[in-house]
Fold these 2 entries.
Entry 1:
Amino acid sequence: MGRSPLVDEISANVHALHPDIAWELGRGRTAMHNLTVTVEGNLLLRRLTEQWLRSSPPPDQTWEYHASRQASAPMGLEIGGKRFAPDEFRIASSFDESRERFDVVLFHPQFKKSDEKLVRQVLFLTLDECLGEDDVERWIGSIDAAKSAPGGAVPLLQFVAQVAGMRGKATGEQYTLGQGESRDGRPVIVSVNTALKQIDHLEHVFHLTAVIPLRQPDGNGLPSADEAKKVNEAEDRLLAELGDNAVQIGRVTWAGRREIHLFVRDPSAAEAVVTSWSAQSAQWSCTHTIGFDPAWTAAKSGIYAALAPRR
């Protein structure tokens, strides 16, 4: 019995979006069926599937559509000739408040009989099933496996409830302050929003850097208390004027300058705002750049560029 022509038709249309996007059919939540596309954790493509969803037909009694795998009741997995029953999973977790993510360790009796590749596959599929693909990206930090139940481990559904309990508490803004050295040995002070998550800001793919050159830096290139206060006020004005068009990555103070790093959604609107802001802050001769950064490299490495490499 051959494959249904519908499968080939769906595959052709999904792969026309991008060859690395996969799709699944299943029972709908409010409709009879659902069509889900998945980027398998590739956030470079997640924005594309969100745009696909926005252009899809409205859901009806027959079909509904999803831009990522949705959470569902754990049904367990059968992979590699092994059955991973959902009620045999145990998961231990610790919540990192600075990142607003759970670091997790999963245990299942079958892990003792499985190779590492299979175990990793089961880990991610199980979390996707319990939380949904987007919430795995949003809430999960490190993922490890154990061959015996870790202390404090709980059933899957209890962990799902723990994650749900954090939704109303997380802010998406947790700034971590650190100090390092530049390549020439001068201090670099970095403040980074370690709770900023790309999954929550898929349209913010332009990196804006605004630079305030200090008027009277000290011998280490840092501002006086008085100038630091004024620079902070100027930074606050910029953030207020940009509004929800921007999310802040953080800031770097070093070498006689303050760098303000943000992601913006609409670069043209941001350009107008920052140009006006620079004119209002003429005492500093501010400059800025805006560049396309869909991979969010500015948050992962760019904001740390002033720091000397670790030895």
Entry 2:
Amino acid sequence: MNTISKNDIKIFRTENSKLDQTDFENLAFGQVFSDHMLTCDFKDGIWQKPIIEPFGPISLMPSAKIFHYGQSIFEGMKAYKDKDGKVFLFRPMENVKRLNKSAKRLAIPELPEDFFMEGLKALLEVEKDWIPEKEGSSLYIRPFVFATGEGFHASPANKYKFIIALAPSGAYFAGKVKVLIEEKYSR
């Protein structure tokens, strides 16, 4: 399995930051996105070196298996800053383990843990100013993998894309929540 270090990750910075136009006092959950994302392709049987690039559209063929067989997985976690500006994550290694457990179940190649961790650290270093400081706010981190390989036949894809996108966010539930308690069915 291939490995990476921080120095292996190329960074392509945006020329048009949205940071100054972002209202950090009134953030909805998952509606605003940071300037950059981490991307990494799986092809020729191995994960390629990740890159950090401006957040933006991605191009896929209409025959990509994500559209036809739903071969996709995701996780989620948050980054916080303390009063001194130090960044904290809650159990990121557990996050990558869950992602890889899901990958195994859907016949998606597992992501090397160092790709995830080194990539996440590098991305957070680039985007540290996007971590809200307001109490109750955080930087939501959405790692996900999806099939980019093509074909209408029912089989695992041969190409995949891993992305980590970031969203400065307020509370997930901004107001009251209606709850339904189900007594007959459970999962």
